[in-house]
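Example record

One chain of 193 residues, shown exactly as stored in the release files.
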Amino acid sequence: MQYRHYSSRYPNYGIAQGMDGRSWWMGVVQNTFSRCRVQDPAVLNTMAHNLYHNFCNAENWEVFPDSHKALESCSSLGLKLGVVSNFDSRLEEILRACGLLSHFSFLITSEEAGVAKPSPAIFDQALQKCGVPAATVAHIGDHYVKDYLTSRSVGIHGFLLDRHNKHNQRDIPQEHRLSSLEELPSQLQQHMD
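Predicted structure tokens for this chain:
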């Protein structure tokens, strides 16, 4: 409930209101526990601080089994890989803890960019970091609007990762759908040829 409230009242970690990811999350956690009748400010602050920092630990994350192999295969094709994510500044630390950071040339979080997907502006920033035209870039994501449609709206080859076959939009050609990241290298190679 507090997450939805903060997301609505202070979108994208409250950047436009002068907040940052840390203060935003601290507020969400403190308000959540205060609604559970935890009233001691020191306890609320300690809980929020600990949750915020412990969130970066690798044991709190599950890396899908196909991730490492797909990233290694894409790198071996000579592709420059990056991350565009609606996330806060902890993403780099999380990717490092999970053993994934070394695969990426750049990261753009919505907190850093000052805009979140589905804004095309975050993809424009990614294209600037890539230094190549949109037509030579692919974006893989699991959200129909935020990832697939928005990336395609700026000329990027968007792919929808649909691990559980839950997206039933008819406007997505089969060759733009991935049920696993294992399919990604061959799909990208087809677009490179």
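Notes: The longest strand covers residues 157-161.
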